[in-house]
Fold this protein.
Amino acid sequence: MIREGIEGIRDSGNSSESGTIAVVDPWSLLPPNGDSPVAAFMTVRNNSSDDRKLISVQSDAFDKIDVHRNEHVGRGVDETVRMVAVESLQIPSWSERIFAPGGMHLMLSGRREALSEGEEVTFTLRFDNGARQEHRFRVRALGGRGR
Ligand SMILES: [Cu+2]
């Protein structure tokens, strides 16, 4: 496991450290059977005076992880929501980006192994300044948001 360049906070969001990116409460839905992609959520907090860009997300458990945002198209009964991939995500200094159901999310596709509820899956965030952070998201069943 590569640990070089990993900075910041492994787990909880109660960090008051400056100069770091904090990832708070990462979790994913329990993937349905088959190959359908699954969404994961978290809050990414930039506790530094520099703007940061999230440039990639990777995990050994998936072929591919994209940042998606939801875009509303049409109006009224014709309104639909489609997902749009975000190439890199700006996280301005002293601010946070919230990945949450109905909004921005990580889209995990090409699952390489079965996941079960309560399991923790390691993933790596890479930023434009070369920093890498390893975190673990917890798999939660639909309707089972409680921990
Ligand atoms: Cu998506």
Q: What stands out?
A: The pocket of copper (II) ion is lined by residues 39, 68, 83, 105, 107 (CB under 6 Å). The chain has a mean pLDDT of 85. The chain has one domain: 20-139. Residues 126 and 132 are 5 Å apart (CA to CA).
